[in-house]
Design brief:
By secondary structure, the chain is an alpha/beta fold. The protein folds into three domains: 4-107, Rossmann fold, CATH 3.40.50.20; 113-130 and 219-338, ATP-grasp fold, B domain (D-amino Acid Aminotransferase, Chain A, domain 1, 2-Layer Sandwich), CATH 3.30.470; 136-216, Dna Ligase, domain 1 (2-Layer Sandwich). It has 13 helices and 18 strands. The strands form four sheets. It has a six-stranded antiparallel beta sheet.
Length: 355
């Protein structure tokens, strides 16, 4: 295992890039990785944390795959580790093409991703295998939307609306009838995702409605679950999201809740996902964790599991490299994680320091 192994990590501007690179550098087998990052933006932060960096077109571009292949061949890459939702679909479609030139892509199969990436299909799967899920409706017009929110208890209760397929908080809105008053104005931080029903409907005036998922609002705490799965092993690490800013976990507490572990085990097997991936759950007013979505890729704060005793980002790479996976000696711990506002300093296009 002494050779330098070249690996492409996509999404150099993704929030989790520093954690992904940390997990690769600090692996338990002391493998030496040459980390090549890519992004659609030239000045992404991962450029300054990795060994090499390349600008690539958007994954929807016809040239995306060919450019990734050229970078991989130039850098003698053996592994591609995608970090963004937009990239995993197209890369999964070309897994065999990459395999034929000696490159493994750490992503589940295309047909599995179509379900896991689709929030509506995921809830349908949860219903099928008896995993708790929020009440939900699929809508594509103003009339079907208004009917759905009424069934979900609006205006007495908040409701949630989101696209079937999205990345992060894009397209997420909480429809609420709550009015702002002096107390709320002075005491609450504006979330930016709450909206009244009339304002929401006006967004689509004159435009065709996309398919949207409308669900009940879950008022309880939110959990992220990190999962590693291969043919023989499954490791599940749930963590409470104690503080969230702009969709990013700023404080987390690992909690080995048996219900979350069991639900995630069942979902992982039913969806047949592999390598590292994750799920989001939120507690109902009765305290029941209900599935929100799946992230069939490296999650933004998956480094928390590295600190908790299992470096599933690295073990996904190790699995793809064909090494034997022995998990008999792992020691999982209920650690706490706090993110802070760090930064890097750049001079003449070169990294000179970080905090």
């Amino acid at each position: 295992m002494g050779d330098i192994i070249s690996i492409i990590v996509t999404g150099a501007g993704a929030p989790g890039i520093a954690g992904t690179i940390y997990s690769l550098r600090n692996n338990p087998d002391n493998l030496n990785f040459k980390i090549i990052t890519t992004d659609i933006k030239e000045d992404s932060v991962g450029k300054y944390l990795s060994d090499e960096f390349y600008v690539v077109p958007a994954p929807e571009d016809d040239n995306y795959i060919n450019i990734i292949k050229k970078i991989a061949e130039k850098t003698k890459t053996r592994i591609i580790l995608p970090q963004t939702t937009r990239e995993i679909i197209i890369l999964s479609q070309h897994k065999e093409d990459f395999k034929n030139i000696g490159i493994d892509v750490i992503v589940s199969d295309y047909d599995k991703l179509l379900i896991a990436n689709d929030k509506f299909s995921l809830l349908e799967k949860a219903k099928e295998i008896n995993i708790p899920y929020p009440k939900y409706y699929l809508v594509n017009s103003q009339s079907s939307f208004m009917e759905a929110i009424k069934k979900l208890g609006y205006p007495q209760d908040k409701v949630v609306v989101k696209p079937r397929v999205s990345n992060g908080m894009r397209g997420l809105r909480i429809i609420t009838n709550e009015k702002w008053n002096v107390r709320r104005f002075l005491d609450e931080k504006p979330e930016g995702i709450e909206i009244d029903v009339n304002t929401f409907v006006r967004i689509f005036n004159g435009d065709e409605w996309p398919e949207l998922l409308v669900t009940e609002y879950l008022p309880g705490e939110e959990y992220t679950v990190d999962v590693f799965r291969d043919e023989k092993n499954i490791i599940v690490i749930p963590r409470l999201r104690k503080s969230i800013r702009s969709g990013i976990t700023f404080e987390a507490q690992v909690e080995f809740r048996e219900d979350l572990i069991n639900f995630s085990n069942k979902l992982s097997k039913a969806l047949d996902l592999n390598y590292c991936f994750g799920f989001q759950f939120k507690l109902s007013k009765e305290g029941i964790p209900k599935i929100l979505e799946s992230n069939p890729r490296v999650q933004g704060s998956m480094v928390v599991s590295t600190f908790a005793g299992f470096n599933m980002i690295y073990y996904s790479v190790k699995k793809a490299l064909g090494f034997e996976i022995d998990l008999s000696n792992i020691n999982l711990r209920e650690i706490r994680f706090k993110r802070y506002w760090g930064g890097i300093a750049i001079e003449d296009g070169k990294f000179i320091g970080r905090i």
